[in-house]
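sorry to bug you again but im stuck and you know this stuff better than me. what follows is a protein written twice so to speak, once as letters and once as structure tokens for the fold. mainly i need to know what kind of three dimensional shape the backbone takes. anything you notice is useful, everything is just below:
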Amino acid sequence: MSDASQVRLEFSDNSLLQELVGPHNSNLHRLEQRLNVVLHHRGNTITIEGTPDRAALAERTLYRLYDHLAAGHELDTGELDGAVRLAEPDGDNASELAIRTRKRQVSARTLGQGTYLKALNDYDLVFALGPAGTGKTYIAVAKAVALKLAGAVDRIILSRPAVEAGERLGFLPGDLREKVDPYLRPLYDALYDMLPGDQVAKLLVSGEIEVAPLAFMRGRTLANSFIILDEAQNTTPVQMKMALTRIGENSRMVVTGDLSQIDLPRGVKSGLEDALETLDDVKGVGLVRFTARDVVRHDLVTRIVEAYDRRDAKRKESAREE
């Protein structure tokens, strides 16, 4: 390795160090691939071999992960990858933001997520756009739960438009709740990640947490609430305007969506796209755009998103040339 440097790190807590390196040094092997360095573990030390800039990045990453463990948090592949991203020089500010709920702490794993966390603190209405796997909905639910636990809001409203690719609700078996629950499942899953199951059930029964299709929002004014409109690319302009005008006193709203995944009938404009054009200059509205670099699922998901982005860019270029 040309221009290589060697950095030796010592750690005071051997039990934490064992968690850091992982079974059979599995965590170190993953970090080696991500950071393009060589890591050696012996006793209470880790030695880093690599170019000076990569070695410095590895040092920041390892100390960040060690501090994460020392704070009582668990370590998984997502945390490993996130620590690498946030160890970059421009990732320092993002790593300072975190949301704490009863069951877990949600921290930024990418720069985009750091921007998102800041926007959730700064704006009453936030639009979050980007591909699946970037944490748009998950982080919004975490923020809603944290504010509810702190008494900053009285209710959490989680909603999605009941639009599906190629099917209609009327053809599905069951009553209305059974028909729409499959579309709302990701919202329930996020809730159960943030709160004990019995508490989620209690709050759903009391109405302090409401998970419902967008159509249920019509005619209501939602005060003292945190409202999340998920999959908003599948709203019509009329539905979007209806949703946005539900915001009442001391309420906040997060609107998430992916404009590359619209399931509306051909020729129907997305309400999300229409809102972004209409509210471009409106004060108090935040906009966060995620990219493939912010995907925190399997590495393959990132590569899939990037492949589709390249294909779409080529199609747009060809259309302009024609």
Observations:
- The chain has two domains: 5-87, 106-296.
- The first helix runs from residue 14 to 21.
- The chain is about 45% helix and 15% strand.
- Residues 164-169 have pLDDT under 50 and may be disordered.
